[in-house]
Design a protein that fits this description.
Number of helices of chain A: 5
Oligomer: homodimer
Strand content of chain A: 5-15%
Largest interface: A-B, 48 and 48 residues
Largest sheet of chain A: 3 strands, antiparallel
Chain lengths: 109, 109
DNA sequence: GCAGTATTTGGTTATTTGCGAAAATATACC
DNA sequence: GGTATATTTTCGCAAATAACCAAATACTGC
């Protein structure tokens, strides 16, 4: 974690990337793109929102540097830029599992 | 990443945890807590905001399951619940590095 | 050029978030 | 009990976010 070396501007950079993933639809998008590049119309079906909404979510991911785009014909094909997101989500999932265990203990005994 | 197995409610759970880290101050807090437990008053100096603001940020981290609290005397001592955040931030930092390289190429070369 | 498809952008509205000040709560000490 | 310290909660407000619709843009093929 490189403790203590973290100033505010570096924290802001980190937060910007994290923020770009802090929405259910964008989590779904990144997960879907883990299987390879996809066009907006197909991603729209994955998310189930209006295509303009999905397009904006993709723009957020792009400006954070998580995905890149290539236009071929009428379609914009989005793909993941980073391979490390698997670890990222593994950590997130482990927190959720731990949290649900903790809540169970607290409620049920 | 367990592709394709991600439904909306699991994505929402992930997003909730990610969201709790999606703020510069909360990134700073988690980084500081990487060095061991700290009380709110000390964390307030790290972040440099009003103590009520810091308290609220800590509450967000707590409800997401990232930290836990123990009261001793007048102080509330917060500590990290999960060890995996190092990987998490490593991934985030690598995205930022890659992104800044990409932007440099686009602007300068 | 015109029609058709894919995507982005702009406008509007509703909701959420973040902040500090002030009030409330909890504990320690005399 | 009364005062001091540490923390959380409440309140009001400003700013950011997210959703959809409609309009604009970009490309393809006739």
């Amino acid at each position: 974690m490189v403790r203590g070396k973290l100033n505010k501007s570096k924290a802001a950079l980190r937060a910007m990337v994290i923020k770009s993933l802090a929405h259910p639809s964008r989590v779904l998008l990144v997960d879907a793109l883990g299987g390879g590049e996809m066009c907006v119309c197909d991603l729209t079906e994955v998310v189930g929102s209006d295509i303009s909404t999905v397009s904006k979510h993709l723009a957020v991911l792009k400006s954070a540097g998580l995905v890149s785009v290539e236009k071929r014909g009428l379609n914009q094909f989005y793909r993941l830029n980073c391979l490390c997101l698997a670890d990222f989500f593994r950590c997130v999932d482990s927190i959720n599992q731990q949290q649900s265990r903790t809540l169970q203990k607290a409620c049920i005994g």
